[in-house]
């Protein structure tokens, strides 16, 4: 085991950090903040980051990426968040949909979408959840009916983030009967006819969206994998989402704000700080284990990382709401920290729900994961 | 010893609940905050005044009916169940303070003429309370800076240091005298109000308290018990909405409530709420029967805060993504609980204080 | 609501306390302790208590009881535990089997057993659990087959306390097919032919027992209720067990020992003490609510009291094992407290298992109990 | 950065596990304690000596092979999984201490000739440690009273105050010099040993440490990491036995593991164990690569202690009544965990200490 970074990796981190400190980035970030709304449009900022090669650091150069290995990729993501870049667009576009396309897309699909994503010119959303299908994705109702050499999509997707400004949806739909067998994955142009995106106001700074698909045409080339073969792909795509890195970095940001804002810590605070800091360190290691584990993500390790990091971030957000007392001690704490921590509390409930609820994670860990504790051949856990 | 809630109290609770309305409440939470930190006009406060709620726990000589702290905790609990904020809680504290200090404001407060907000009570030791100084016969100069929840109140009640740091006073300032130096970034948050040089009438000082003993009994001790009841109500309301959701919402062909993981956690929440509810009732009873209740008021507030916090989080988890939206407004409880858990002291500080008293207490 | 005691009740408490301080009681208790074993025989002590009228305080005089109301009865039990009397025999004999006989037994059964129990001359055990039937009592396998005007019992009961010294067992057995319909309740003479009692060594001071029933004859008069009608009675008997008072009193004793032994409390200790003391107070109220709720015990309130009090006592035992540091600070803490707290830790796991596991309590609360939160007519919770 | 366990370490772990035996262990726990506080002869210690375990993490010049703290945490973890106590952990600490102090005892310790028990390390500030004074050339007089777990050790390693309270020493006393003033009331407990006037050789002092800094790095810091690994192993072992039980045991016509309430709690325990395991490996790596590890050693011990405590309790609950008996000896873990959770400091004290360091730490 090796918990340190090589000299090359450390140099890479420094270089990336300097790039995030570039004037163009700082300016773009300032303009984002100057919009003065709870959910500013970050696309101009992302275009700057794309220009600087800071988005798709880990993708091959032929698709517009930086050709970096997983460790360097993770370093770049850490620095992105630490530079204060709002990361939802990065998580959805680069880390989830883009990475999944890279793993499972056709050559045409990759060429059609990845370079534009890497440049910060095209953005993507995940469209799995429906009003009646949350954790139980096998019950989804959106249909894809054959139409010439393509399909027509009908249905409703909900709780998607940023879909008012994204261009591409990774959409699960039913192409046949059955629970898991009848599901296929499509790439949907969110500007196409028949797509209607409405906001669902949220207490978090980022609103959700409802995406109504009313006979939306998708072509033969927009299918991922085989017709009806979407379920195993979906499982893989979900595991890709679950590195826990984004949650770990949120926890880090919040915990640091709590610590740095506290002028006169008492023992109870110190005990809480020590505990949360230790768990943050552990969370980081769990995430790194997934990130460096190769392209076939270990489903259980990913579930552990997602569970642990999101529960921790939620815990820190709740802790932050108490340690300073009423109103985050805003009589003396600077407004920037107050606003950060205050928003954390409103964001926190979503963390243990998005990308698979904690219950789904526990189901995965409690079935497949625990089999490792049994003497060989004693379980059928994987099937349950 | 009879731990069952009596029929009169039960009826009173129902009357209160029947008058409370939550229409429009959740939509407001999801809107951008107003530029002026002033909550919407409060229909529920009007409803409570209509049934003379401020009189229930007020002295006879001031127009009250002396039903005791038990009655006002009941109202607080029902407000919590509905998930609504209300001037009622701060009014009740102001009445207690005015009664203790024999302040002339008492009658107006009991009549329900002043909608009050409370601010500055978050520290068990009042270390961050503003200070006030006498300005001849003109009244009081108040200096300090406070987190305040925007509301439709007429006045804000706050603790102030008097004569250096010898005494603690409870003072009632006009809400409009607050100078906002920061506004909430989103609904459900607080702003910062400055009181630099705020001048008020001599009569604004409702009472003086000895800082060491003043916070666990007397007006502030009673406020703790009322706040505990409010938190129990918030937990109750959050659980009720969650149970209803878990009964209706199906996944994997079963209602959520049929999964033992969900059912057990909801069941645990019920047990915790019941425990806090009984402890609150006992604390009110101690106060009403003239017994010492400093330990009880401290402990019940800390316990109720924990129960509310845990239940609020559980509710959001079981409710899923829709609990963050108007589709399932569990967030009403989640956001309110954040404010109320620390309003009269952080739970960990309360526990430490309570533990110190327990070290020498014969009753443990 | 009324949380105080009347002057009469307070006087009664004082009187009872004095009686427990009687020389005969102190002597008998000293002799129990002088046995110097982990699980001393408490029967001689109980005979003294019986003589003094301190056992069945709440039973009618005609059955040897003191005719006291539920509040006075609970007061007497509190004083019994506070006087340091080991209470397992009292809980099983007086509070469970005896009380249940009083509620559900025939006149003959009451006369046959209750007065001797009240005198401390006859002791009882509960025989429900079997090797394969713990929480799932509907799966029990012990059979009662008709034999003349009586039955013969065959089966194995386990995890019973004190059955090596008790005389009477309240036993659930199968008289017919079905899950719940085929179950009947019997009183079994534990000295009868065919009863074999073996110890199952436990880490707790009190060992468990295995009771093998090999054709044990019970007469017609030993049936409780109707043949095959045992399930509702069993449910009722279980609710009677679940006042939580015994667990509350354990938690009280342990918490007091922790507090009184701590010379230099720090803030973390004080916070823990405050929290546990508050929960203890709440636990006491939950128990009193059940005790004073009348003979038809509210199943949900009982489940809440049992759950809360047993979890609390377990929590306190675990807390006690940490607050003094390694070895309960035995370098300076007196041996009596160390031994009490040390034994508490070994007893603690059993508390959330006996008289219905915490999971069974949560099942009851989570089904029937939560219906109270629903608008009327919205649930079928009671049936699940 | 490569967080996967490497094949050599994995193999080493398997070798250790294959040699450990738990036969007879649980029956002993259920027997009455011996009158003489002396554990049974220890087959597992013999097995570890057979594979030269004490050499793994010892300096080359003393006959060691310098595989580092990573190797000895691995052994500790495997001992934990099996649920066995072992002189190994205290021997490893004694070796570190003897190496730090260049003590002549070092070679004997590395050779595995002395079975050691550790006592007196429970306070983070060592406030209750015994004191030692020089008695000319005769050696040391040690005064004090300690909780000690009875064992089959040859020697007991303890911290002592030297020269008043200036320095802290680690001293190795003959186990037979302990005067027992109280015996454990039941197996799994501790007794009290008095050291009043215990005299020992000058060479018994293995090393001197500065009390302020000496406990989070150096020999005691390494002991914390090893102890954390042992606790992770105990949690792992408890969970493994519980999963097996939950798979086998049926209630309501289903294996226990199929109830989401059980499954989720076991799954949560796995996540917590994995987190503590990685944190332990990282702490060992920091030490082995010569980096500061005071924060890491403190935090990982506290975290592992909590994980072990929670997993041990969960195991007993899922195991049911039989877990208290030889029918399902989960109690082996439950009782061992009680002793080990506090052996090198109470978790809450460790957290406070760690938090204080974190306040000024750039790495948070």
TrEMBL record, chains A, C:
It holds the Pfam family Acyl-CoA_dh_1. Coiled coil: none annotated. Keywords: FAD, Flavoprotein, Oxidoreductase. One of its GO terms (molecular function) is oxidoreductase activity, acting on the CH-CH group of donors. InterPro entries: Acyl-CoA_Oxase/DH_mid-dom (IPR006091), Acyl-CoA_Oxase/DH_mid-dom_sf (IPR046373), AcylCo_DH-like_C (IPR036250), AcylCo_DH/oxidase_C (IPR009075), AcylCoA_DH/ox_N (IPR013786), AcylCoA_DH/ox_N_sf (IPR037069), AcylCoA_DH/oxidase_NM_dom_sf (IPR009100), Mycobact_Acyl-CoA_DH (IPR052161). Residues 127-214 form the Acyl-CoA oxidase/dehydrogenase middle domain. Its cofactor is FAD. Belongs to the acyl-CoA dehydrogenase family. This is Acyl-CoA dehydrogenase. It comes from Paractinoplanes ferrugineus. The lineage of its organism: Bacteria, Bacillati, Actinomycetota, Actinomycetes, Micromonosporales.
TrEMBL record, chains B, D:
The keyword Flavoprotein applies. This is Acyl-CoA dehydrogenase. Residues 218-340 form the Acyl-CoA dehydrogenase/oxidase C-terminal domain. It comes from the Bacteria. Pfam families: Acyl-CoA_dh_1. One of its GO terms (molecular function) is flavin adenine dinucleotide binding. Keywords: Flavoprotein. It comes from Paractinoplanes ferrugineus. The keyword Flavoprotein applies. InterPro entries: AcylCo_DH-like_C (IPR036250), AcylCo_DH/oxidase_C (IPR009075), AcylCoA_DH/ox_N_sf (IPR037069).
């Amino acid at each position: 085991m090796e918990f340190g970074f090589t000299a090359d990796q450390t140099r890479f981190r420094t270089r990336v950090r300097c790039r995030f400190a570039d004037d163009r980035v700082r300016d773009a970030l300032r303009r984002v903040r100057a919009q003065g709304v709870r959910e500013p449009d970050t696309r101009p900022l992302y275009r700057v980051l794309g220009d600087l090669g800071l988005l798709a650091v880990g993708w091959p150069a032929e698709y517009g990426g930086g050709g970096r290995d997983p460790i360097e990729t993770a370093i770049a993501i850490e620095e992105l968040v630490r530079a204060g870049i709002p990361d939802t667009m990065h998580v959805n576009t680069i880390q989830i949909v883009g990475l999944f396309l890279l793993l499972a897309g056709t050559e045409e699909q990759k060429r059609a979408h990845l370079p534009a994503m890497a440049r910060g010119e095209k953005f993507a959303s995940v469209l799995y959840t429906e009003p009646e299908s949350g954790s139980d994705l096998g019950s989804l109702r959106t249909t894809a009916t054959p139409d010439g050499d393509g399909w027509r999509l009908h249905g409703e997707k909900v709780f998607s983030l940023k879909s008012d400004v994204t261009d591409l949806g990774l959409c699960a739909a039913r192409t046949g009967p059955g629970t898991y067998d009848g599901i296929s994955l499509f790439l949907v142009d969110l500007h196409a006819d028949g797509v209607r995106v409405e906001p669902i106001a949220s207490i978090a700074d980022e609103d959700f969206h409802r995406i109504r698909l009313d006979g939306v045409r998708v072509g033969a080339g927009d299918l991922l994998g085989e017709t009806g073969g979407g379920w195993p792909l979906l499982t893989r795509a979900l595991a890709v989402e679950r590195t826990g890195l984004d949650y770990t970095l949120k926890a880090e940001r919040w915990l640091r704000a709590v610590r740095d804002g506290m002028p006169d810590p008492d023992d109870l605070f110190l005990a809480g700080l020590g505990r949360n800091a230790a768990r943050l360190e552990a969370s980081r290691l769990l995430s790194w284990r997934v990130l460096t584990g190769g392209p076939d993500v270990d489903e259980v390790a990913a579930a552990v990382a997602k569970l642990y990091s999101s529960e921790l971030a939620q815990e820190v957000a709740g802790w932050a709401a108490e340690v300073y007392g009423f109103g985050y001690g805003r009589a003396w704490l600077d407004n920037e920290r107050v606003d950060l921590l205050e928003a954390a509390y409103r964001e926190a409930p979503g963390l243990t729900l998005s990308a698979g609820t904690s219950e789904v994670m526990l189901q995965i860990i409690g079935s497949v994961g625990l089999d490792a504790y049994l003497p060989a051949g004693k379980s059928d856990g994987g099937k349950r | 010893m009879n731990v069952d809630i009596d029929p009169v109290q039960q009826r009173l609770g129902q009357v209160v609940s029947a008058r409370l309305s939550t229409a429009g409440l959740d939509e407001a939470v999801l809107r951008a905050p107003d530029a002026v930190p002033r909550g919407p006009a409060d229909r529920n406060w009007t409803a409570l005044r209509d049934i003379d709620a401020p009189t229930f726990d007020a002295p006879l000589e001031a127009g009250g009916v002396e039903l005791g702290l038990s009655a006002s905790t009941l109202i607080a609990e029902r407000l919590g169940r509905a998930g609504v904020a209300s001037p009622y809680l701060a009014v009740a504290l102001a009445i207690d303070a005015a009664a203790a200090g024999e302040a002339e404001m008492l009658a107006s407060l009991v009549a329900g003429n002043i909608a009050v907000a409370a601010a500055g009570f978050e520290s068990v030791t009042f270390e961050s309370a503003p200070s006030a100084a006498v300005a001849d016969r003109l009244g009081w100069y108040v200096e300090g800076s406070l987190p305040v929840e925007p509301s439709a109140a007429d006045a804000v009640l706050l603790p102030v240091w008097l004569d250096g740091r010898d005494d603690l006073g409870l003072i009632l300032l006009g809400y409009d005298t607050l100078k906002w130096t920061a506004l909430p970034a989103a609904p459900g948050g607080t702003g910062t109000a400055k009181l630099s040089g705020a001048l008020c009438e001599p009569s604004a000082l409702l009472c003086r308290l000895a800082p060491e003993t003043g916070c666990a009994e007397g007006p502030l001790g009673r406020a703790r018990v009322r706040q505990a009841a409010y938190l129990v109500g918030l937990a109750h309301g959050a659980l009720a909405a969650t149970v209803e959701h878990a009964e209706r919402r199906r996944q994997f062909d079963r209602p959520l409530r049929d999964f033992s993981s969900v059912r057990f956690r909801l069941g645990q929440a019920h047990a915790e709420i019941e425990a806090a509810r009984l402890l609150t009732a006992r604390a009110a009873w101690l106060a009403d029967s003239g017994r010492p209740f400093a330990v009880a008021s401290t402990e019940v507030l800390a316990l109720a805060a924990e129960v509310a916090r845990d239940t609020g989080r559980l509710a959001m988890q079981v409710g899923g993504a829709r609990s963050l939206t108007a589709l399932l407004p569990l967030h009403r409880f989640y956001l309110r609980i954040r404010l109320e858990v620390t309003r009269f002291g952080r739970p960990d500080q309360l526990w430490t204080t309570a533990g110190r008293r327990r070290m020498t207490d014969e009753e443990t």
